[in-house]
Amino acid sequence: MDRLTDLIASAARAQGFMMVGFAALRRLENREPFFRAWLNDGRAGEMGYLAREPERRFDPRNLDPRLRSVVSLAYPYAAPGRPSFRWPDELRGRIASYALGADYHDYVLARTRAVAAAIAAAHPAAIARTYVDTGPVFEREWAFEAGLGWFGRNTNLLNVHHGSYFFLSEIFTDLEVDAAPRPARDHCGRCRRCVELCPTNALVEGYLIEPRRCLSYLTIEHRGPLPLELRPGLGNWIFGCDICQEVCPWNEASGRLAPELAPFLPELMALDDDGFRRRYGKSAIRRTRRRGLLRNVSVALGNSRNPAAIEALSSALRSDPEPLVRSHSAWALGQIGGRRAGELLEGAARRETEASVTAEIRGALETARGACASAPAHKDSSLTRSVG
User: Fold this and answer.
1) Residue 294's domain is classified under what CATH number?
2) Which of 333-337, 369-373, 375-379 holds the top average pLDDT?
3) 133 is catalytic
4) Which of 173, 190, 224 is the last residue before a domain boundary?
5) pLDDT at 257
6) Per annotation, catalytic residue among 2, 133, 178, 273
7) How far apart are CA 193 and CA 195, in angstroms?
8) How far is 291 from 105, CA to CA, in rounded Å?
9) Which of 108, 128, 264, 346, by CA, is between 20 and 30 Å from 101?
10) Domain that holds residue 139
11) Is 238 among the domain residues?
């Protein structure tokens, strides 16, 4: 390791980065046909920003022709612990572990800029442009080029020592650095746990993902009604998903467990805009906005089939200002079923004027009475209203 890479690696370790790698910038010609076909197939869904400035993605030198190298950094976050609550009795929701606590964009960017500052201190005339999940940058691809890991069957970047529970950030510079001798080789072998256990079958053969079926896309990026056939797959996930990471053997020995944050779902249904901002305004969860989060919570409550959720859902169906929330609350009541849910849906059908909501109410009424017969019994006395 030369003096420059040693300086950068030392600064990265001081900022808490678990891995640092280096690569010479070039045009990623091998990714261009795939990415263009991926966009043309509509796989970006509602993520229209992915189609902007593709040339900058293929070659970061379009940002600045003076750039020569990339420093790729990996910052750890805690793997999820085994839930201690009893789902569905306790009506608690799951949040992807990366979204627990403060928004990673802020603190990882601050640490990346600190590494860039160390470069600038040693080389005052150097260019050092930083990115953390922002801008038209193929972060995973540059991490691969820098030797940080391989593309797993779950499409995450995997490392034999650190699994996949880490954020990626980059520093593009005009300095020449020693590049990784070779990319990491594939260690997935014949393991297919992530493919077989994905609840919506989003992972397909060939190390590919259909984003429009992925729970992370559906619960965060997708803004409209959730596809009916995919709603049961959400289970009690209300923001993101960790399943394809949880089941990966390379993550089994990570030893870093996230603090449990399993919010009581009926309480979330009562959040207004101010309450949502107070609770999630400084976390990554704010990205889904109030109506998106409550849409997801409604589906989770419906998936619980727990009659204890009826009160919160009926309140939302009656008075929530967002049609998206009312429509998914109606669906959830239909999944729970029984006389009370049916009565509430019938009352809503008489007063509702929004077409999208009335359509959901009609569908829910068709299933409401039949759902009760197949649902497990739940004891309301097992509920706790304390929030993690």
Assistant:
1) 1.25.10.10
2) 333-337
3) yes
4) 173
5) 64
6) 133
7) 6
8) 22
9) 128
10) 3-77+102-173
11) no
